[in-house]
């Protein structure tokens, strides 16, 4: 067996199941889960209809490159959303089976771990990750023969990472940088100044930037959508060299079961990524390619979807702010709540809330790694407001009641 598999850590939800093992929630409370970031809003009818009308596609192998109409639909969306008028659908857009698959596979494509065993053990290539982070980044790095290096988010910087604190010898070994904007779990959005800094570092050290933007369409001000990586490059008059963005329909259109997304950016990287994926065998189903065209071409259902999140966040955030240190995020559908004032650790808070009120939240320490003397997720919980408005409000009411019982 590949010995690198033994370097992988349990997924956060495995840790959560272990934490809850043996706990029987108090009777009288129906379960409410804020744990998994899985959209619960109904899938739009136009997408459901497109799937049904495309079932004849089951009789054909899907093209790994994606159909030309799908690439054109994605490119048209990106041009309208980010002003990317020069984006080439033929060479700078690649449909994928969800951003998770692509985030993992990308590292296998761009990491060069060739060296002697002795050197590889002493100085493996580096993959930089935010901390806390989406665990796929870490697994992708480890299985590509690289070493993850975690850059802690800083609450004083709106949870942005301080890349100026990364030592020069780490930058010299860095081959890939994962960023997530809007961020999971904090919801923070990278600013143009953040991107300017990252581009300068990439130009100096030659590493690839993978911008995970799967939450880009969940935001709260229609006049100010989150800045994207390719958009930042355009604004700064920079090309797409060593830069790719990854996006998905899962959150935008409430179709996580379709596993439909795309990668866009540096044509040279995408050419090699296509070669890797041709052997990897991860082509998006023809049925879902056709349905994805309908999804990318329609914005009405996306605006309706955002309106539901706005309603939930406007109602729930003030409720929870009475008992926890929590604030409106920049974007995405998570609240990143500091529970320290309750006197409980993040794991104690999650376990007792589940036992007493049958509400599930995810401990922040499960989403981060100890780095540079601290685990930046400790003392926080991630609350995914993915259910309907009434269920989210009821869950928030229970959390408020739970916190108040701790002080009585």
From TrEMBL:
Aminotransferase class I/classII large domain mapped to chain residues: 32-390
Alphabetic keyword roster: Aminotransferase, Transferase
Keyword check for Zinc: no
GO BP terms in the entry: lysine biosynthetic process via diaminopimelate
Pfam families for this protein: Aminotran_1_2 (PF00155)
Cofactor(s) it depends on: pyridoxal 5'-phosphate
Molecular functions (GO terms): pyridoxal phosphate binding; succinyldiaminopimelate transaminase activity
Name of protein: Succinyldiaminopimelate aminotransferase
Source organism (scientific name): Caballeronia grimmiae
């Amino acid at each position: 067996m590949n010995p690198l598999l033994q370097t992988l850590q349990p997924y956060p939800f495995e840790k959560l199941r272990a934490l809850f093992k043996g706990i029987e929630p108090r009777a009288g409370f129906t379960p409410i889960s804020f744990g998994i970031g899985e959209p619960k809003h109904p899938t739009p009818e136009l997408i459901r209809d497109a799937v049904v009308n495309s079932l004849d596609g089951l009789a054909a192998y899907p093209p790994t490159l994606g159909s030309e109409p799908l690439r054109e639909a994605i490119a048209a969306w990106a041009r309208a959303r980010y002003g990317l008028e020069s984006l080439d659908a033929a060479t700078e857009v690649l449909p994928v089976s969800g951003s998770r698959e692509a985030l993992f596979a990308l590292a296998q494509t761009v990491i060069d771990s060739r060296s002697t065993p002795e050197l590889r053990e002493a100085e493996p290539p580096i993959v930089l990750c935010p901390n806390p982070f989406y665990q796929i980044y870490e697994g992708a790095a480890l299985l590509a023969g690289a070493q993850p290096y975690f850059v802690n988010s800083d609450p004083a910087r709106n949870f942005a990472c301080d890349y100026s604190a990364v030592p020069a010898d780490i930058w010299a070994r860095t081959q890939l940088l994962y960023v997530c904007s809007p961020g999971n779990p904090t919801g923070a959005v990278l600013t143009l100044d953040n991107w300017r800094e990252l581009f300068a570092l990439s130009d100096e050290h030659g590493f690839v930037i993978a911008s995970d933007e799967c939450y880009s369409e969940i935001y709260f001000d229609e006049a100010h959508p989150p800045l994207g990586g390719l958009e930042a490059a355009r604004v700064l008059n920079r090309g797409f060299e060593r830069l790719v963005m990854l996006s998905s329909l899962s959150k935008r259109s409430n179709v996580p079961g379709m596993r439909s997304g795309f990668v866009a950016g540096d044509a040279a990287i995408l050419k090699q990524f296509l070669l890797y994926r041709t052997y990897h065998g991860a082509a998006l189903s023809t049925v879902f390619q056709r349905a994805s065209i309908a999804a990318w071409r329609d914005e009405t259902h996306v605006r309706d979807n955002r309106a539901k999140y706005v309603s939930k966040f406007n109602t729930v955030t003030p409720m929870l702010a009475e008992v926890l240190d929590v604030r409106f995020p920049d974007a995405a559908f998570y609240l990143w709540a500091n529970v320290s004032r309750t006197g409980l650790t993040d794991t104690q808070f999650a376990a007792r809330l589940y036992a007493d009120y049958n509400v599930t939240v995810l401990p922040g320490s499960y989403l981060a790694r100890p780095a540079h003397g601290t685990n930046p997720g400790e003392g926080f919980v991630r609350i995914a407001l993915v259910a309907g408005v009434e269920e989210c409000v009821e869950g928030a009411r229970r959390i408020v009641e739970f916190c108040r019982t701790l002080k009585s």
